[in-house]
Amino acid sequence: MTGHPQHAARSWVESANDHPDFSLANLPLGVFSRDGDEPRGGVAIGDRILDLRAACEAGLFLGQALDAAQAASGDSLNAFFALGAPARKALRDALQALLGEGSTQREQLQRMGESLLQPMERCRLHVPARVGDYTDFYVGIHHANNVGKLFRPDNPLLPNYKYVPIGYHGRASTIDVSGATVKRPNGQTLPPGASEPTFGPSKRLDYELELGIWIGPGNSRGEPIPIGRAADHVAGFCLLNDWSARDLQAWEYQPLGPFLSKSFATSVSPWVVTPEALEPFRCAQPARPEGDPQPLPYLYDQGDQQQGALDIELEVLLLTDAMRSKGLAAQRIALSSTRTMYWTVAQMVTHHSVNGCSLQPGDLFGSGTLSGSSPESLGSLLEITQGGKQPLELANGEKRTFLEDGDEIILKARCRRDGYASIGFGECRGRVTAAAGMA
Amino acid sequence: MTGHPQHAARSWVESANDHPDFSLANLPLGVFSRDGDEPRGGVAIGDRILDLRAACEAGLFLGQALDAAQAASGDSLNAFFALGAPARKALRDALQALLGEGSTQREQLQRMGESLLQPMERCRLHVPARVGDYTDFYVGIHHANNVGKLFRPDNPLLPNYKYVPIGYHGRASTIDVSGATVKRPNGQTLPPGASEPTFGPSKRLDYELELGIWIGPGNSRGEPIPIGRAADHVAGFCLLNDWSARDLQAWEYQPLGPFLSKSFATSVSPWVVTPEALEPFRCAQPARPEGDPQPLPYLYDQGDQQQGALDIELEVLLLTDAMRSKGLAAQRIALSSTRTMYWTVAQMVTHHSVNGCSLQPGDLFGSGTLSGSSPESLGSLLEITQGGKQPLELANGEKRTFLEDGDEIILKARCRRDGYASIGFGECRGRVTAAAGMA
Predict the structure, then answer these.
(1) B189: closest CA among B405, B402, B390?
(2) Under DSSP, is residue B262 helix (H, G, I), strand (E, B) or coil?
(3) Which catalytic residues are annotated (chains A, B) (predicted)?
(4) What ipTM goes with this model?
(5) A163 with A110, same domain?
(6) Residues B19, B143, B233, B352: which is the catalytic one?
């Protein structure tokens, strides 16, 4: 065990040990396919995907773990999300026993070879669930401050911000998985100084670095989820890129909020990282400074205040066509953290349902852009370039105010803590392609 | 034929003839169940529902009409919507032949009795499709003006209004069918003069009179629907009540738009009135006054300008507990029309998809509140009472600024034109019940 974190159990799947993302401590779920086969549920372990359907057919699970594995064997994880925490934990325990170094079934499993453990590089990953409703929050307080300053230098945060976990309904039909290209949207914009809008490709295309939250069992209409039970309704986490056309947004968003400026694309990472994997990385809510108002009682739970925040490192990288053609690696353009969330995930869940709105398995939340307070931790080009006024200078000499065709944005996330195996989210990639020609 | 509109073919289903809503000229589709049976598709004819599954099993349809009837036989109309106009028209033609006075199959059908033609009063009606995404527009220009005046007396319409069909994403999970009760939502509000919000039941609960639009085949991501093809993607129409908690809305809506103030409930009428039934009631766009800017080219189609608007009479009735206990009928509180729409349905479809956003069969649009210009034609209490300042006086002596528990709102719609059978939408009803107790 020397040199290994004390809480990091080893696996007989060699690539899992010391894997930066997918060690035995993580075991995120996703939906994959190979060679044009039907998509089905799987679990990431090292450089492999454990095929849950094959595992069920081989009789590897019993009881609640079997229920969970069967529910996760189809072409979406909705049924698995609906089962909630007990079944999810049972599956996790069973998988850790099967895949652990001391597994009694190791030889049987090894004999199954690739029929059980598919090489990840040969598989295609899919959006892990059918998204019923997608809600995008705005809980990154530095982002809210930074964007507010562009419009209201003296009064950046609106009066409701520290009371209401602000959110809005997003578009579910255009959620796609990491790797899908993003076509630059056409739309109406009001050029500077003009009194009439023009129509054409967005000139201010941006990304937003967000945490995605997959919803589990959910609630019936009219029956709010109390804050103390909110965690029971969170199925897992992913990375989310809320692509945004800032020029469309500026022209369209009054009075009802963002619409076409966001609805052309939202990218998510394919792996659903479970609350159990993130357990060691929970922390007290750090972003609410002393002197700020206490949350209203329906949003306040002592356990949530002390353990409801997450300590996940977030990263944004940019790979341009020029870098790609010279064989350069993607350049990091931001390093941030989920510790910048002003509201916890539990507060988001409870607020969303407090009016009686029903949440359903497979609903997706975005956190809103998670920028830090330093210039190196900003989660959008809007903030980095101060609304397009200060270009970002890249290491290869290129400059960017907003995204150009060919630019690829890569989001990453990792949890680190001394004595624990690191937990990675994998990647959320998306490359911008040219706008559709105009008819 | 004396005394009957010249274009109104008669049916051997006697209750259909001269029926104010469901004559042979209408034939709207819906999803119904009886005695706890599985929900399935049907067609309203007089006081009956034609059971499409029974009709298919009896071999009443052939070719495209059979395809359409089979697609509409399940527990939602999504597959039927996906087929588009040719199949929908084939089914309409087949139904008009089968149910017309001169039908050659009349005796066979009459022998089938209630197994084919269920008594509507003994059936339960359901939301007719699984709604993927729900979008609420804001195309009622008088409503936009009236609401704008409450906030900005000198400048009620924002500069984008006459260029952009303003809309926002709504909540799909809380769409319910006419007849479902609406629980008053709890939420945060900022009392007048206060600097901190309080939490409790909404005190300013309101309705909104809207036209609902069901989306048909739809488009692939990244492939906008040109204005000249937009009508191909409209499957039908309904009434829609966009219940709104004005006090929650005022506190939460900056900067991202309405959220919990709307997401607790949206009611729709159960019958999908087809574009074919509404064909005689198309008209030129009347609401865009001379001198207003022309639509940008992507939103302009000459045929749409000349025939793309709809002439549908809209009505709001209120039934209070006091009226109900005295056996009084519901009181009409507004009479309006779809001629108040500043943008056509085709313009809404094309605008929504112009950024590459994919529309899918079963997506639902709301038009936004359709108020007229007169005091008797206002589609919400917010407008009738001028933001709660001028109570509405009811005939029985009651007053309302906003809705009270027990109040029932009934929306109706009808098309009338000399020489044509009238086409009705049926009703969209919803009764307010008390807020959930606070934990």
Answers:
(1) B402
(2) helix
(3) 143 (proton acceptor)
(4) 0.96
(5) no
(6) B143
